[in-house]
Amino acid sequence: MKATVKWTDGAMFVGESGSGHAVVMDGSEELGGRNLGPRPMEMLLIGTGGCSTYDVMAMLKKSRQQVVDCRVDIDAERADAVPAVFTRINMHFVVTGVGLKESHVKRAVELSAEKYCSASIMLGAGGVEIGHSYEIVEFEPGL
Fold first, then answer.
1. Would 44 be classed as within a structural domain?
2. Record's superkingdom (predicted)?
3. How far apart are CA 91 and CA 123, in angstroms?
4. Could you report how far apart the first and last alpha carbons of the chain are, in Å?
5. At 30, is the pLDDT very low, low, confident or very high (cuts 50, 70, 90)?
6. Which of 30, 42, 109, 133 has the fewest Cβ atoms within 10 Å of its own Cβ atom?
7. pLDDT band at residue 143, thresholds of 50, 70 and 90?
8. pTM for this one?
9. What CA–CA distances, in Å, run from 139 to 60, 95, 104?
């Protein structure tokens, strides 16, 4: 896997993935940025949530669950000192579907946390306290 990050101006950088997708990252105006994109540490958090949600959805699809929507709300804390690493991350999955089985959702979240999500497992191995929770919402057409 490869990527390139290029400085463009002030505190703005453009990252390009090996698959050719680009994203702008920028700092706050106080730090010389123009606030035109997420911060690099926000990208790390978003990537971790994406990695885990991908796993959860793949497992729910494989178990033939009728998922209509899935999101993960991520709450994180960082150290006050430099380096301002993540110290705690909580990922709360909200899975909406038709007749979802709690055992399948619970297992998908657990397997992502313990076995499949490379990003969260890597951060956890580095000392970040990572929590996972979930809730199931029954889909109601027309709402």
1. yes
2. Bacteria
3. 13
4. 42
5. confident
6. 30
7. low
8. 0.92
9. 15, 9, 16
